[in-house]
Amino acid sequence: MNEIITSVILCLFTCCLVMCVVWVWAYLIKNAGVVDIFWSFNFTIIAAILYFMADGYWLRKILICSMVAVWSLRLGIYLLERVGSHLDEEEGRYKRMRNEWGTSADKKLFWFFQMQAISNLYLAIPFFLVAYNKKPGLTLLEVTGAIVWLLSILGESIADVQLNRFKRNIANKGKVCDVGLWYYSRHPNYFFESMIWTGYFLVAVGAEYGWLALLSPLTILLLLFRVTGIPLTEQQAVSSKGNAYIEYQKTTSVFIPWFKKIINN
Fold first, then answer.
1. Domain range holding 82?
2. Are residues 34 and 89 in the same domain?
3. Torsion of CA 131, 136, 140, 143, to 10 degrees
4. How many of the other CB atoms lie within 10 Å of CB of 209?
5. How many domains, the chain?
6. What's the pTM value of the predicted model, to 2 decimals?
7. What is the pLDDT of residues 59-83, one digit of tens each?
C-alpha cells in the first residue's frame, strides 16, 4: 500500500509541476490552449512512473503502460500540431474564460491548470489498478480490452487524419466535413476516444477494486456530452457554418457511427 501511495503522490506532484511550467508559458504567450497538449502528455509521465514503480505482473504492466503511452503521445502530438500552428490565436472557450474572469483571469487559469493535473491522476485510476495487479497471466477480458483499445485508437487516428485532410483543402473552407467516418458520425473522434477508455476499463475491471475503473470512461462520457465536448463543438460549428451544419445535424448520428437518416420533405 505504501508503494501505491508513493507512486500516486509522485504522479500528482510531477503532473502539477508540469502544469505550473505550462501556465508560465501560457501566461507569456497569452494562449491557455497549450494546457490541452500537456494534459495529454502527462499520461505518458504517469505511465513511465508506473512502469518503474509498480510491482504488478510484468506482462500486464508492460501492456497497460504501452497502451497509455501510445495513446497519450499520439493525442499530444496531434494537439501540438493543431494548437502549435495557431499560438497567436487562442481557442474560443479560453477566450470566454478570460472575458468572464476579467482581471483575475491569469490567476484563475493557474488553478484551472492545476485541476487539469488532478484530472490526470483521477482518470488514471484504471492504470494504477492494472499496474499493481499481481495475478499471473492475462485473462480473456483483458485481451478483449486491449483489442477494443487498439481498434479505437486506429479509428480515432483515421478520423483525425480525415478531418485534417478536409480542412487543408482550401476548396472546403466554410464547408462541413462529411467524408469518411464523418459521414456516419458528427463526432467519430469523440466516439473512439470514449471507446479507448472503455478498453482501459476492460483491462482493469478484473483487478482488486476493479469496479473503480468504470469512473474513467463514465467521466469521459460526461465531459463529451455535457461539458467541453459535443455541446461546445456543435455550438461553434453552427455559428461558423450555419444552415449547412444544421442540415448535417438532421441527417447524421451525433456520436455512434451509423447510417444517414432519410429526411422526408
1. 1-135
2. yes
3. 40
4. 11
5. 2
6. 0.93
7. 999 999 999 999 999 999 999 998 8
